[in-house]
Amino acid sequence: MLSLSDNFAPTPKTLIGASAGLLLAAAIFAGLNVTKIKALRLTAAEAATTRDAAERSSAQREKDLKTRESAVAADQAKLAEQAGKTGPTERQLTQVLNEKKQLEAKLQDKEAELLTLQKQIEEKQPASANPGAPSSVELQAQLDDARQQLEAAEREKTFLSEKVQAVKERSSQLEDEKKRRAVAHGKVGVKGTILAVNQAYNFVVLNLGGRNGVEPHSEMLVVRDGTFIGKIRISSVEPATAIGDIITSTLARGVQVQPGDIVIYAGTNS
After folding, report:
1. Which of 182, 196, 179 is nearest to 232 (CA)?
2. pTM of the prediction?
């Protein structure tokens, strides 16, 4: 009888089969490992791309935030400058009005003096012979003196009239400037929306117009989702709409103004 060990003794054929099976299993595991490594590398690359995009987005948001803060600071400085100019303008206007009143009073006095001199000249005209009247030479001298005084008074009246007119013009200019600044200060913060954008010619159409206090050459901030985008300058105004030119130098790289963006009044350049 053959022993059990003799029945299971390895033969060359068995060893070759076992080796082939092990090689096949190793190849299968190697293929699975390669696939797994490729998947891990792809996942790592996607994660790195996502991280880079997040970093760029964060840097862009920080840049936009700094730009917006700079724009707000500039607008606040402009408001403070306008507020600082209002006081001196009011004092200057008061001084001009006082000077105007004084000049008008002097002019009235001078006109009264002219009337008096004219009456004196009329009274001193040569008349019929009168034994008790002054001589013709004396009358002529008095008449010449009165005429000289009259001419001097008329010159002074002309000078005072011109000065009063200049003061009136200056007073009107100061009042207009005061009103303009008051209106501009009241309009700061007025908001509207961009209705349409023409990228070819860099202009936009707004839903604000003259009824809202919009004026040519005024500037407006463009904001999207609370983030400063850039600025526009008003070129023409209608009652309910306005057209503004995009100030491209204020736009960040790759950013464009779009319909629906919010605009906020920022003031004028004058």
Report:
1. 196
2. 0.36
